[in-house]
Design goal:
Blueprint (H helix, E strand, L loop, with lengths): L7 H10 L6 H13 L3 H14 L4 H16 L3 H14 L6 H13 L13 H14 L6 H28 L3 H14 L6 H14 L3 H14 L4 H10 L1
Helix pairs in contact: 1-2, 2-3, 2-4, 3-4, 4-5, 5-6, 6-7, 6-8, 7-8, 8-9, 9-10, 10-11, 10-12, 11-12
Protein backbone atom coordinates (compact mmCIF):
# COMPACT_ATOMS: atom_id res chain seq x y z
CA UNK A 1 0.00 0.00 0.00
CA UNK A 2 1.29 3.52 -0.79
CA UNK A 3 -0.73 5.46 1.77
CA UNK A 4 0.03 5.41 5.48
CA UNK A 5 -2.98 5.09 7.79
CA UNK A 6 -2.53 7.74 10.47
CA UNK A 7 -5.35 7.09 12.92
CA UNK A 8 -6.18 3.84 14.70
CA UNK A 9 -9.55 3.71 12.95
CA UNK A 10 -7.94 4.09 9.56
CA UNK A 11 -5.29 1.55 10.47
CA UNK A 12 -8.06 -0.95 11.14
CA UNK A 13 -9.66 -0.18 7.81
CA UNK A 14 -6.34 -0.35 5.93
CA UNK A 15 -5.26 -3.65 7.47
CA UNK A 16 -8.71 -5.08 6.81
CA UNK A 17 -8.52 -4.34 3.11
CA UNK A 18 -5.26 -6.27 2.89
CA UNK A 19 -7.04 -9.48 3.86
CA UNK A 20 -8.92 -11.67 1.41
CA UNK A 21 -12.60 -11.42 2.26
CA UNK A 22 -13.34 -14.17 -0.25
CA UNK A 23 -11.98 -16.84 2.08
CA UNK A 24 -13.58 -17.79 5.40
CA UNK A 25 -10.27 -17.22 7.23
CA UNK A 26 -9.79 -13.78 5.71
CA UNK A 27 -13.38 -12.67 6.20
CA UNK A 28 -13.31 -13.79 9.82
CA UNK A 29 -9.99 -12.02 10.43
CA UNK A 30 -11.47 -8.79 9.07
CA UNK A 31 -14.45 -9.12 11.41
CA UNK A 32 -12.08 -9.78 14.32
CA UNK A 33 -10.16 -6.59 13.60
CA UNK A 34 -13.31 -4.51 13.81
CA UNK A 35 -14.23 -6.39 16.98
CA UNK A 36 -10.85 -5.69 18.63
CA UNK A 37 -11.11 -2.07 17.56
CA UNK A 38 -14.46 -1.86 19.39
CA UNK A 39 -16.27 -1.03 16.17
CA UNK A 40 -18.97 -3.41 17.25
CA UNK A 41 -21.75 -2.70 14.77
CA UNK A 42 -19.36 -3.24 11.87
CA UNK A 43 -17.97 -6.35 13.56
CA UNK A 44 -21.46 -7.85 13.83
CA UNK A 45 -22.11 -7.06 10.17
CA UNK A 46 -18.85 -8.72 9.16
CA UNK A 47 -19.36 -11.80 11.32
CA UNK A 48 -22.83 -12.12 9.83
CA UNK A 49 -21.31 -12.01 6.35
CA UNK A 50 -19.00 -14.88 7.28
CA UNK A 51 -22.02 -16.94 8.37
CA UNK A 52 -23.89 -16.18 5.18
CA UNK A 53 -21.02 -16.58 2.70
CA UNK A 54 -19.41 -19.64 4.28
CA UNK A 55 -22.19 -21.49 6.11
CA UNK A 56 -20.38 -24.85 6.11
CA UNK A 57 -17.08 -23.49 7.38
CA UNK A 58 -16.04 -23.76 11.01
CA UNK A 59 -15.61 -19.98 10.81
CA UNK A 60 -19.38 -19.72 10.46
CA UNK A 61 -19.72 -21.40 13.87
CA UNK A 62 -17.01 -19.15 15.31
CA UNK A 63 -18.86 -16.14 13.95
CA UNK A 64 -22.11 -17.18 15.63
CA UNK A 65 -20.41 -17.19 19.01
CA UNK A 66 -18.46 -14.04 18.23
CA UNK A 67 -21.71 -12.20 17.49
CA UNK A 68 -23.07 -13.18 20.90
CA UNK A 69 -19.83 -12.00 22.52
CA UNK A 70 -19.97 -8.67 20.72
CA UNK A 71 -23.52 -8.07 21.93
CA UNK A 72 -22.36 -8.87 25.46
CA UNK A 73 -19.35 -6.54 25.22
CA UNK A 74 -21.53 -3.66 24.08
CA UNK A 75 -23.96 -4.41 26.92
CA UNK A 76 -26.81 -5.37 24.62
CA UNK A 77 -27.67 -8.16 27.02
CA UNK A 78 -31.11 -9.06 25.66
CA UNK A 79 -29.59 -9.56 22.20
CA UNK A 80 -26.68 -11.50 23.71
CA UNK A 81 -29.14 -13.76 25.53
CA UNK A 82 -30.88 -14.63 22.29
CA UNK A 83 -27.60 -15.19 20.45
CA UNK A 84 -26.12 -17.45 23.15
CA UNK A 85 -29.36 -19.44 23.34
CA UNK A 86 -29.35 -19.91 19.58
CA UNK A 87 -25.73 -21.07 19.65
CA UNK A 88 -26.51 -23.48 22.48
CA UNK A 89 -29.45 -24.94 20.58
CA UNK A 90 -27.50 -25.32 17.33
CA UNK A 91 -24.26 -26.61 18.87
CA UNK A 92 -25.07 -28.55 22.05
CA UNK A 93 -21.78 -30.51 21.96
CA UNK A 94 -19.51 -27.53 21.36
CA UNK A 95 -16.19 -27.60 23.26
CA UNK A 96 -17.22 -24.18 24.56
CA UNK A 97 -20.59 -25.35 25.84
CA UNK A 98 -19.79 -24.42 29.44
CA UNK A 99 -18.74 -20.92 28.42
CA UNK A 100 -21.91 -20.48 26.37
CA UNK A 101 -24.08 -21.69 29.26
CA UNK A 102 -22.29 -19.32 31.64
CA UNK A 103 -22.68 -16.34 29.33
CA UNK A 104 -26.33 -17.20 28.77
CA UNK A 105 -26.95 -17.09 32.51
CA UNK A 106 -24.94 -13.90 32.85
CA UNK A 107 -26.90 -12.27 30.03
CA UNK A 108 -30.05 -12.79 32.09
CA UNK A 109 -28.27 -11.64 35.26
CA UNK A 110 -27.11 -8.41 33.65
CA UNK A 111 -30.72 -7.58 32.74
CA UNK A 112 -31.88 -7.69 36.36
CA UNK A 113 -32.81 -4.33 37.91
CA UNK A 114 -30.60 -2.72 40.51
CA UNK A 115 -33.46 -2.34 43.01
CA UNK A 116 -35.87 -4.99 44.31
CA UNK A 117 -38.99 -2.85 43.88
CA UNK A 118 -38.82 -3.38 40.12
CA UNK A 119 -39.66 -6.36 37.91
CA UNK A 120 -37.63 -9.45 38.81
CA UNK A 121 -39.27 -11.77 36.29
CA UNK A 122 -35.89 -12.65 34.73
CA UNK A 123 -34.48 -13.82 38.07
CA UNK A 124 -35.81 -17.35 37.65
CA UNK A 125 -34.25 -17.61 34.18
CA UNK A 126 -30.97 -16.42 35.65
CA UNK A 127 -31.07 -19.03 38.41
CA UNK A 128 -32.09 -21.79 36.00
CA UNK A 129 -29.30 -21.14 33.53
CA UNK A 130 -26.56 -20.68 36.12
CA UNK A 131 -27.76 -23.84 37.88
CA UNK A 132 -27.53 -25.72 34.59
CA UNK A 133 -23.89 -24.73 34.29
CA UNK A 134 -23.13 -25.80 37.87
CA UNK A 135 -24.89 -29.14 37.40
CA UNK A 136 -23.70 -30.07 33.91
CA UNK A 137 -20.16 -28.70 34.07
CA UNK A 138 -19.05 -28.96 37.73
CA UNK A 139 -15.36 -28.65 36.79
CA UNK A 140 -15.79 -25.57 34.64
CA UNK A 141 -13.71 -22.51 35.41
CA UNK A 142 -16.94 -20.50 35.43
CA UNK A 143 -18.64 -22.41 38.25
CA UNK A 144 -17.35 -20.24 41.11
CA UNK A 145 -18.69 -17.03 39.59
CA UNK A 146 -21.90 -18.76 38.56
CA UNK A 147 -22.51 -19.80 42.17
CA UNK A 148 -21.82 -16.27 43.38
CA UNK A 149 -24.23 -14.71 40.90
CA UNK A 150 -26.88 -17.36 41.52
CA UNK A 151 -26.77 -16.68 45.27
CA UNK A 152 -27.01 -12.94 44.63
CA UNK A 153 -30.08 -13.51 42.45
CA UNK A 154 -31.78 -15.74 45.01
CA UNK A 155 -31.10 -13.13 47.66
CA UNK A 156 -32.75 -10.49 45.48
CA UNK A 157 -35.88 -12.63 45.32
CA UNK A 158 -35.75 -13.08 49.11
CA UNK A 159 -35.42 -9.33 49.62
CA UNK A 160 -38.42 -8.81 47.34
CA UNK A 161 -40.45 -11.27 49.42
CA UNK A 162 -39.36 -9.50 52.60
CA UNK A 163 -40.26 -6.13 51.09
CA UNK A 164 -43.80 -7.29 50.30
CA UNK A 165 -44.20 -8.99 53.68
CA UNK A 166 -43.08 -5.84 55.48
CA UNK A 167 -45.54 -3.80 53.43
CA UNK A 168 -48.47 -5.89 54.69
CA UNK A 169 -47.11 -6.11 58.25
CA UNK A 170 -46.73 -2.35 58.64
CA UNK A 171 -50.29 -1.86 57.44
CA UNK A 172 -51.52 -4.53 59.87
CA UNK A 173 -52.76 -6.80 57.06
CA UNK A 174 -51.56 -9.76 59.06
CA UNK A 175 -53.07 -12.63 57.05
CA UNK A 176 -51.20 -11.51 53.91
CA UNK A 177 -48.05 -10.77 55.90
CA UNK A 178 -48.18 -14.25 57.44
CA UNK A 179 -48.20 -15.99 54.06
CA UNK A 180 -45.30 -13.88 52.79
CA UNK A 181 -43.13 -14.41 55.87
CA UNK A 182 -43.82 -18.15 55.73
CA UNK A 183 -42.69 -18.13 52.09
CA UNK A 184 -39.59 -16.17 53.04
CA UNK A 185 -38.69 -18.68 55.73
CA UNK A 186 -39.57 -21.77 53.70
CA UNK A 187 -38.03 -20.79 50.36
CA UNK A 188 -35.05 -18.66 51.34
CA UNK A 189 -33.53 -20.28 54.39
CA UNK A 190 -29.96 -19.60 55.50
CA UNK A 191 -29.75 -16.28 53.68
CA UNK A 192 -30.04 -14.12 56.78
CA UNK A 193 -33.81 -13.69 56.90
CA UNK A 194 -34.79 -16.56 59.22
CA UNK A 195 -34.86 -14.71 62.57
CA UNK A 196 -37.03 -11.89 61.31
CA UNK A 197 -39.30 -14.17 59.29
CA UNK A 198 -39.94 -16.51 62.23
CA UNK A 199 -40.62 -13.63 64.61
CA UNK A 200 -43.03 -11.97 62.21
CA UNK A 201 -44.76 -15.30 61.53
CA UNK A 202 -45.42 -15.69 65.25
CA UNK A 203 -46.69 -12.14 65.61
CA UNK A 204 -48.86 -12.27 62.47
CA UNK A 205 -50.32 -15.67 63.39
CA UNK A 206 -51.13 -14.41 66.88
CA UNK A 207 -52.78 -11.29 65.46
CA UNK A 208 -55.17 -13.35 63.34
CA UNK A 209 -55.81 -15.71 66.24
CA UNK A 210 -53.99 -18.71 64.74
CA UNK A 211 -52.48 -19.79 68.06
CA UNK A 212 -51.32 -23.29 66.98
CA UNK A 213 -49.23 -21.80 64.18
CA UNK A 214 -47.91 -19.04 66.44
CA UNK A 215 -46.83 -21.57 69.07
CA UNK A 216 -45.28 -23.88 66.49
CA UNK A 217 -43.04 -21.19 65.02
CA UNK A 218 -42.25 -19.70 68.43
CA UNK A 219 -40.70 -23.03 69.41
CA UNK A 220 -38.59 -23.05 66.25
CA UNK A 221 -37.49 -19.46 66.86
CA UNK A 222 -36.57 -20.20 70.48
CA UNK A 223 -34.60 -23.30 69.51
CA UNK A 224 -32.71 -21.78 66.58
CA UNK A 225 -32.21 -18.22 67.82
CA UNK A 226 -32.25 -18.12 71.62
CA UNK A 227 -31.78 -14.78 73.35
CA UNK A 228 -32.31 -12.68 70.22
CA UNK A 229 -34.34 -9.48 70.00
CA UNK A 230 -36.56 -11.22 67.43
CA UNK A 231 -37.41 -13.93 69.96
CA UNK A 232 -38.12 -11.35 72.66
CA UNK A 233 -40.47 -9.45 70.32
CA UNK A 234 -42.38 -12.65 69.52
CA UNK A 235 -42.59 -13.72 73.19
CA UNK A 236 -43.87 -10.28 74.16
CA UNK A 237 -46.65 -10.57 71.58
CA UNK A 238 -47.66 -14.00 72.89
CA UNK A 239 -48.10 -12.85 76.50
Amino acid sequence: MTLICASSVLMTACSSTERNSNTPEGAFAIAEEFDKGERYEEAIRRYTEVKNKFPYSNFATKSELAIADVYYKQESFAEAQVAYQMFKDLHPTSPQADYVQFRLGMSYFQQLPTTIDRDLSLANDTILNLSDLIKKYPNSQYVAEAKEKRTATIKMLAEKEEYIADFYFKREIYDSALGRYEGLYRNYGSLGFDKKALSRIVISAHKIDDKPKAEKYLKILAADFPGTSELKAAEKEMK
